[in-house]
Specification:
Largest sheet: 7 strands, mixed
Number of helices: 0
Structural class: mainly beta
Order of helices and strands: EEEEEEEEEEE
Strand content: over 45%
Length: 123
Amino acid sequence: QVQLVESGGGLVQAGGSLRLSCTASGRTYFDYDMGWFRQAPGKEREFVAAITWNGDTTCYAVSVKGRFTISRDNAKNTVNLQMNSLKPEDTAAYYCAAQWRGDYERESEYTYWGRGTQVTVSS
């Protein structure tokens, strides 16, 4: 079992930055690949970014590439999402998730999910 808790959401103006954190508990957390997804009102949940269990490989949605950076610190059981140059269209609830060696961009591949943290970007 892996439990995930997101934090760091809030209200920010367009062009600003936020850093989301996901704190994991569970003794095998470091074995899992980790991802961030988001869901805007009235829309389906979508992939944002992912990182492999050892941090060697990352991937990003086209819409956030170059603006967002995912990282992890297995010693601290955390996965972070640094979000820069935020746009109003980045407004969504952001979710942290864990999976075992599946397709990083596919929501159904993820086994464990946090409850989400809200990010609101004003224009």
